[in-house]
């Protein structure tokens, strides 16, 4: 394993290399993991101080469901993730499940992406993305398991809950901050639109969970029938009238408004995540 990591280090020498080592050690402790691959800017040798750690985690097919279930606990206990993983809607569908974590390390907040894939589909994933192996288990054969299709499809098709949408909003805020710092205006625009959609979805999931309407349709008729709903829609309207390509100040204002909406629409969710939200603001302030 050290030799494989040395190859990545020689290509990048990123400031977060210590977190890379720690992540590989934590993830490889599980007997369910057959191999780990780093992809994205670390694999391409273009990482900077803001780059995320982007893993392909190949899990033996029979253990796939159990590994997905414990991923949040593992990332929190072993790596200091401040929030549950966001079920990534941006990553391409390659035959597995993508999750994004925000991990506190050495006084900074880093993004760690896990693309968890059954071993039986690993070659398909590796053919679609540039990746470097950083861990390979020895002497372990794997066999395909029919249940992984159902697990992956049912997970991808399951609607997001209010707490998952709040996590999505916070993760997107961290991602947008990186885009602003790098001057990536087009991507900042796209991710800001995704944040707006997540706020809208959180309102709907909280106040109209049985909605049969698609996307942005019928919001006033469906949500605006109660005082809380009207307040949430007013907050959403204020959010949408901000700059399409945000500055740092715009992002802070948008996140503040998003949390105001969450406190109105899903107060118990905010209460449950309050320590994580406080930690998030702390790290964002010093980003």
> Sheet bearing the most strands, described?
6 strands, mixed
Distance between the termini: 31 Å
Number of domains: 2
Give the DSSP E fraction (strand runs of 2 or more residues). 5-15%
Q: What sort of overall outline do the alpha carbons produce when their principal axes are compared?
A: globular
Residue runs with pLDDT of under 50 for 5 or more positions: none
Report the CATH topology name of the largest domain: Beta Polymerase, domain 2
Mean of the pLDDT scores?
90
Number of strands: 6
- Helix-strand category: alpha+beta
Question: What is the CA-atom radius of gyration, in angstroms?
Answer: 20 Å
Amount of helix = 55-70%
Helix and strand pattern: HHEHEHEEEHEHHHHHHHH
CATH superfamily of the largest domain: Beta Polymerase, domain 2
- Named at the architecture level, the CATH assignment of the largest domain is 2-Layer Sandwich
The DSSP helix count reads 13
The CATH C-level class name of the largest domain: Alpha Beta
Strand order of the largest sheet: 3-4-5-2-1-6
């Amino acid at each position: 394993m050290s030799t494989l990591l040395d190859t990545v280090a020689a290509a990048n020498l990123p400031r977060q290399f210590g977190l890379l080592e720690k992540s590989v050690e934590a993830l490889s402790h599980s007997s369910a993991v057959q191999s780990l691959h780093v992809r994205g800017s670390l694999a391409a040798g273009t990482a900077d101080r803001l780059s995320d750690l982007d893993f392909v985690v190949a899990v033996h097919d029979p253990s796939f469901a159990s590994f997905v279930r414990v991923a949040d606990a593992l990332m929190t206990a072993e790596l200091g993730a401040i929030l549950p993983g966001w079920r990534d809607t941006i990553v391409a569908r390659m035959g597995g499940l993508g999750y994004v974590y925000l991990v506190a390390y050495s006084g900074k907040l880093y993004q760690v992406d896990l693309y968890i894939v059954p071993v039986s589909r690993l070659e398909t994933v590796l053919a679609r993305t540039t990746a470097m192996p950083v861990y390979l288990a020895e002497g372990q054969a794997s066999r395909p398991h029919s249940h992984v299709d159902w697990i992956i499809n049912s997970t991808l098709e399951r609607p997001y809950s209010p707490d998952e949408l709040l996590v999505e909003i916070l993760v997107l805020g961290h991602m947008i901050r990186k885009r602003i710092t790098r001057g990536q205006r087009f991507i900042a625009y796209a991710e800001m639109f995704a944040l707006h959609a997540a706020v809208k979805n959180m309102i709907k999931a909280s106040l109209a969970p049985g909605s049969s309407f698609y996307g942005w349709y019928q919001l006033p008729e469906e949500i605006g029938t109660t005082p809380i709903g009207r307040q949430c829609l007013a907050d959403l309207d204020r959010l949408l009238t901000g700059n399409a390509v945000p500055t740092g100040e715009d992002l802070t204002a948008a996140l503040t408004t998003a949390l105001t909406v969450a406190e109105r629409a899903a107060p118990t969710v905010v209460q449950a995540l309050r320590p994580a939200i406080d930690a998030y603001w702390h790290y964002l302030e010093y980003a």
